[in-house]
Amino acid sequence: MMMKTSFLQILMASTLSVGLCHAQIAEDFKPSSLNQPGQEYPMVNSQGYARFKILAPAADSVRVSLGLGGKGGTKLAKAEDGSWMGTTEGPMDEGFHYYNVKIDGGKFNDPGALNFYGSVRWESGIEIPAKDQDFYALKNVPHGNVQQVLFPSPSTGTSRRAFVYTPPGYEKGKDKYPVLYLQHGWGEDETAWMNQGRANLIMDNLIAEGKIKPFIIVNTYGMTNEVKFGKIREFKIEPFQTVLINELIPYVDANFRTMANKDNRAMAGLSMGGMETKTITLNNPDVFAYYGLLSGGLYAPADIKDKSKVKLIFLSCGSKERPDGVKKATEELKAAGFNAVSYVSEGTAHEFQTWRRSLYQLAPLLFKK
Amino acid sequence: MMMKTSFLQILMASTLSVGLCHAQIAEDFKPSSLNQPGQEYPMVNSQGYARFKILAPAADSVRVSLGLGGKGGTKLAKAEDGSWMGTTEGPMDEGFHYYNVKIDGGKFNDPGALNFYGSVRWESGIEIPAKDQDFYALKNVPHGNVQQVLFPSPSTGTSRRAFVYTPPGYEKGKDKYPVLYLQHGWGEDETAWMNQGRANLIMDNLIAEGKIKPFIIVNTYGMTNEVKFGKIREFKIEPFQTVLINELIPYVDANFRTMANKDNRAMAGLSMGGMETKTITLNNPDVFAYYGLLSGGLYAPADIKDKSKVKLIFLSCGSKERPDGVKKATEELKAAGFNAVSYVSEGTAHEFQTWRRSLYQLAPLLFKK
Hints:
The structure is a homodimer of 369-residue chains. Chain A has seven helices and 20 strands. The first copy, chain A, is of the alpha+beta class. An eight-stranded mixed beta sheet of chain A has the order 13-14-16-15-17-18-19-20. The longest helix of chain A is centred in the N-terminal third of the chain and has 18 residues, at 7-24. β13 of chain A pairs antiparallel with β13 (145-153) of chain B.
């Protein structure tokens, strides 16, 4: 769309923009909290800019995938010491981001950063400090444990892995606990919710503040067939449903002190994990009573045959996703008599900050009735 | 040094060498078992050769750090499809190896391989199938859990992480168990024994075969101050000793069903972890009764003040390390009346295959008296 502008206007705008740009970047960069031990870069500043430094003196081109949307990431330039450096063109959204580094046409990771499984590969991770980061911080409170469990899966002919969060005091106590089955998104795996999502710290903090009834969280891998990038439509839910319903849940109920009934069992998931949650909860109305879709689809009142079996429907997404859809679906569910709650994460997109916040909102609503 | 050689001799030698080379490498390469999901490379063949393929079409030089000793790794060559490929010049030792990829002067990881913490960075890992790999294989047997524990450490002012292996049946049982405190080497961390070492699978398999009395294993980070590469002499044991003896052990005894006494407590470690084990066991004769040094120092009879307190001394290393020292020290301990056992891992060096095998040998000797 063309607009009438005078030369002066253009000049002013461009001066302003350059001026702002330089004035804007606060030189208070600190190492990202997700760096490998002793690594200075990548760094982040108080405004959310990220700065990268990659050593590859003989490379011809180095580009980091993280940057403002639609600009193909951040191109690094050769610095005086032979390394490649660059700063994002603008502030990044608060929270966790995956990224990788293109070097001379190949995709690698930033040697300074820790790795997190996403996009069907171990990617580099960076943390942009968030105003509300306190709720997922590691604090001096009693900590629950995260257990790696290898459970037998006859249907897939192997031992499969799950992570089980048990609340503080579980090991020495005798109480039984409700269970939330919580699924990752496409391209991620069962490590995502504890690593990127910090689900264990969110729970520890909520429990320490007396804001929730303690419960167990179980994460497992939500795919049983190998699905390549872009081929998500080939994904079939049935094999995973068998693993979850017929194998994992009985294993957890047999090996942990759970309250093994529908009213003490929840399922939630992010993105693809939300799609899985929707299908599996609707297929198994006597297994779960609490449903959560985090940036992952919606329920309509007509989807649910027996309203009395559902204790809660939680729908959420980031404000940069489609919050209107989430709000509208929630209103429709409420109007139809469901206990439905929506949550919109301000200023975030289809990323883990949205889902950390969603879990923080969802947890106090679970197992209340 | 010049030698008299005829032209024919040179020709024969070079023909022979080329011929041998091609005849020798069996073209039965398969993806390494430690590859990222869906990744074909790196590959290994039945003889222990490793083959790499790295995509970086515009790079000038790509070199993999893994290769025959003293040759600086394996230089890759540009393949027809624009990727960089290469095969090690000879077979690698059996078991796990760390490696990284030098691209145009920078150090990165192989995007095809999983990462493991070693050399104070997350390195790429590759697994050369071993004749005895069955003892650390994931089998259809009952599996113990590996718990991530965050324990309070007033002396270092933070929550510190430990991994706790609990034997199959622990969750629902009532038995109390002995505990082995098992330390990693320099540049590694508390993830090493379960990830690279497969300690949990070694235990699961030994327990399933009835070869050991089940026990708990605890791994924590063996350094409390940041020590940079090459500065290991600056390392001080006291702060770690405080964490282990005054903080971790009381936490484990308070939160797990342990037999909380000297005769049911062992300490062992690999490399630097062996050095730590030696110092800490000698400083704390009433805390541990079983001592294990895996490629990490030796005890002399004169080191130990009260022989009656020590139930076992286990010393091990790879045959490519200094097995004579291990054997001699063991003989001297035996002659002095100690229950001392040595083990030498055939055909391995200062690497994790030596330590997997050492744990397999050590475990049945623990907590027997």
